[in-house]
Design goal:
heterodimer; A: about 260 residues; 5 strands; B: mainly alpha; Rhopdopsin 7-helix transmembrane proteins; two-stranded antiparallel sheet; 8 helices; membrane (chain B); transmembrane (chain B); transmembrane helix (chain B)
């Protein structure tokens, strides 16, 4: 009888202990769960901050590129036109009205050309706003500028002009990627033909750039610290969950295919 | 005249005193109700229970009446805690209706003298469910709670500890009362432990509350 009582007592103690321990486990579970979520939120915030910082850097780079283009244009084009205008006007002999009239006409033509160039420059100054009109327009503007230099033969298929979606942050990064790629082509590729294709399919934006330049060893270049800005391109692509396929080998040109989830 | 006090009464009185120090003047319904409830608890334990035991040689009916207040006040507190996340009017009303129906059913069939185990068991189950639901809401809420310093969280945790732990006591009421170890029955020991945990956690929640109020002011 006493054995039975002892057994019951033990059973009771065990069951009661379990009932008392359950809330302790629950509290610990909640504590751990909240801690895990807090860490997750902190990680997300850190990622967001990193993204914002990179975006700001991209914005500054786009601005810098615009300024450089403007400076080059002012120096090489508008400056030359205006110098020529000054020279022409200085050489006018007022006694020779026939020649003077021709020279004034020439000067007027030069001034008109300068105005045209300045208008083009004004458009470029709106480089940041151009992203607001959509990535298609931004790409078009960039390629127009490249075309104007007349160094490369451009084959363009830009199907992004009528794109109905926008993603301002991604657009800025994509524009900067294109600028970086074009800069690399101008600086290193020695290409004569550049093909650019942009299109949108199943929530993905594709940008394909192909050139017939000297090419390079991709692995070796990525390994270098300078890396022609390749690491920066990869980092930015990764930041917007995109993919980049780069095919190049010495003397066989380079093909870059970018895929970005969009918008 | 010296009054001998049980462990439970001592912790209840200590908690009430701490409540008076920390919660007096608090305008939030949860803490006002808690203070009033603690006053009722202390009055029941120190005065009414002893008076009934002397007068009628049985004070269980006092505790049966006290259970009605307990159900009301704890439900009101839970309502205040849940209100932060949802509109708990429906579930609290349903819980109270179930409790009062069970209470009346026991009262009609057994009278007021025996301890109303039906109502106590049902009340414990209902409160445990509310607490688990509260925990679920805390975990799934967008706003992350700082549980170490959240007065509401520890108030609810105290309720969960007490009513979850008391479930075995209510389920095996007869058995637990019949086995005596030392001065108390098993039920007595169990409720001593549960009350110490319950009032300690409430005391902690009061401290969290006064810290919270100081930070807010």
């Amino acid at each position: 009888m006493q054995d039975q009582t002892t057994q019951i007592t033990i059973l009771v103690i065990i069951s009661t202990t379990i009932f008392l321990l359950m809330p302790i486990f629950l509290v610990f579970y909640i504590k751990i769960s909240i801690k895990y979520r807090k860490n997750h939120v902190l990680e997300k915030t850190a990622m967001k901050q990193k993204f914002d910082a990179e975006l700001l850097k991209t914005q500054l780079e786009v601005q810098e590129q615009t300024m450089q283009s403007i400076a080059t244009e002012l120096h090489d084009n508008v400056g030359q036109l205006l110098s020529l205008t000054t020279l022409t006007l200085n050489s006018i002999d007022l006694n020779n009205t026939e020649k003077a009239g021709k020279k004034i006409d020439n000067s007027l033509g030069l001034v008109n050309n300068s105005i045209k160039e300045l208008r083009e420059l004004a458009k470029l100054l709106h480089g940041e706003q151009i992203v607001q009109n959509g990535i298609g327009h931004a790409i078009e503007q960039e390629l127009n500028w490249l075309n104007k230099a007349g160094v490369h033969q451009l084959i363009v298929s830009n199907n992004l002009i009528d794109l109905n979606y926008t993603s301002p942050d991604k657009d800025l990064i994509i524009l900067r990627l294109l600028q970086e790629i074009i800069n690399n082509i101008i600086k290193h590729a020695k290409a004569s033909v550049i093909e650019v294709e942009g299109y949108f399919r199943e929530n993905t934006l594709y940008l394909n750039v192909k050139e017939n330049g000297v090419g390079f060893d991709v692995e070796e270049t990525r390994g270098r610290r300078t890396g022609m800005g390749l690491n920066s391109i990869y980092k930015r692509i990764e930041m917007i969950n995109g993919k980049l396929a780069l095919n190049s080998s010495p003397n066989h040109g380079t093909t870059i295919l970018i895929e970005i989830p969009y918008p | 005249m010296f009054i001998s006090l049980s462990i439970i009464t001592v912790v209840e009185l200590l908690c009430f005193i701490l409540g008076l120090i920390t919660l007096l003047g608090d305008k939030k319904p949860l803490w006002r109700n808690t203070l009033i409830f603690l006053l009722i608890v202390c009055l029941t334990e120190v005065i009414l229970g002893r008076w009934a035991a002397r007068k009628f040689h049985n004070n269980i009916f006092i505790y049966n009446i006290y259970t009605l207040f307990e159900a009301g006040f704890i439900s009101a507190g839970i309502y205040q805690c849940l209100k932060k996340y949802i509109n708990p009017t429906k579930i609290i009303t349903i819980g109270l209706v179930i409790f009062y129906v069970t209470y009346i059913a026991f009262f009609v069939t057994h009278g007021i003298s025996p301890y109303n185990t039906w109502a106590a068991s049902i009340l414990a189950v209902i409160f445990v469910l509310y607490c688990l639901y509260y925990y679920y809401l805390v975990i799934s809420a967008d706003e992350l709670m700082e549980i170490n310093t959240s007065p509401e969280f520890w108030w609810m945790t105290a309720v969960l500890f007490f009513y979850f732990g008391s479930t075995t006591g209510n389920l095996f009421h007869e058995l637990f009362t019949s086995i005596v170890i030392g001065k108390f029955s098993i039920r007595g020991h169990l409720f001593n432990v549960l009350n110490v945990i319950f009032y300690s956690l409430w005391a902690y929640s009061f401290i969290c509350r006064i810290k919270q109020r100081r930070l807010q002011s």
